[in-house]
């Protein structure tokens, strides 16, 4: 459901929050509907138990995880030749399911910000490991391999890692700290609305 709100141009944060609010309101609507149908006080009181049910069902299907709203990055010194400055870079490893799952959101970020390129660097010397990612990206991301020794240090051995540098420093988010507020923050930077 959050994809629907993203398609309407809402932020990542609001697109994550609004479905939960919608299902709370749905519960209130169901409660009021049922309460009007029954006159006995006991049924009216029991109908109040209906309020949280839609929210709880949605929450069971789409739970909120600890990192969903996080925006915690680490700052590192920018090393020339490691990543391109002023460009979002994802550091991945071969066969990483979490790296693979990040591709859809990266493509959406690219569309929403209008940036030309997002780099997706796979830490390998073997180009065959890129095929899996390239197939999922469908040509929307710049999927390349690299064995630059600084990249695993930058990622702190946590993959995928999301990096953005200004030529002097690099902000790096781990997968656990790259929540919807981090995506909004990066979209502001990529779209030119805020400073690094």
Number of helices: 8
- Beta-strand fraction estimate: 5-15%
**How many strands?**
6
**Distance N terminus to C terminus?**
31 Å
User: What strand line-up does the widest sheet have?
Assistant: 1-6-5-2-3-4
- Give the overall pLDDT as a whole number: 90
Fraction of helical residues? 40-55%
Taken from the alpha-carbon principal axes, the silhouette is elongated
Provide the gyration radius in Å. 21 Å
Low-confidence stretches: none
Sketch the topology as an H/E string, one letter per element.
HHHHEEHEHEHEEH
Describe this structure as you would to a colleague.
The chain has 196 residues and is an alpha/beta fold. It is built from 8 helices and 6 strands. The chain has a 6-stranded mixed sheet with strand order 1-6-5-2-3-4. β3, α6 and β4 form a beta-alpha-beta unit. The chain is elongated. The two termini are 31 Å apart. The model has no long low-confidence stretch (mean pLDDT 90).
């Amino acid at each position: 459901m959050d994809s629907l709100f993203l398609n309407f141009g809402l932020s990542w944060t609001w697109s994550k929050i609004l479905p939960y609010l919608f299902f709370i309101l749905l519960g209130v609507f169901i409660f009021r509907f049922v309460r009007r149908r029954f006159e006995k006080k006991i049924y009216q009181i029991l109908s109040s138990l209906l309020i949280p049910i839609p929210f709880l069902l949605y929450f069971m299907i789409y739970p909120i995880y600890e990192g969903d709203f996080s925006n915690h990055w680490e700052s590192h010194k920018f090393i020339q030749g490691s990543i391109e400055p002023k460009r979002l870079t994802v550091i991945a490893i071969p066969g990483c399911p979490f790296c693979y799952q990040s591709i859809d959101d990266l493509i959406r970020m690219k569309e929403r910000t209008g940036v030309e390129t997002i780099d997706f660097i796979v830490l390998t010397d073997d180009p065959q490991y890129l095929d899996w990612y390239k197939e999922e990206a469908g040509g929307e991301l710049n999927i390349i391999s690299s064995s630059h020794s600084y990249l695993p240090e930058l990622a702190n051995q946590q993959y995928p890692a999301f990096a953005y540098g200004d030529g002097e420093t690099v902000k790096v988010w781990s997968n656990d700290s790259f929540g919807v507020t981090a995506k909004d923050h990066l979209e502001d930077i990529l779209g030119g609305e805020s400073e690094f």
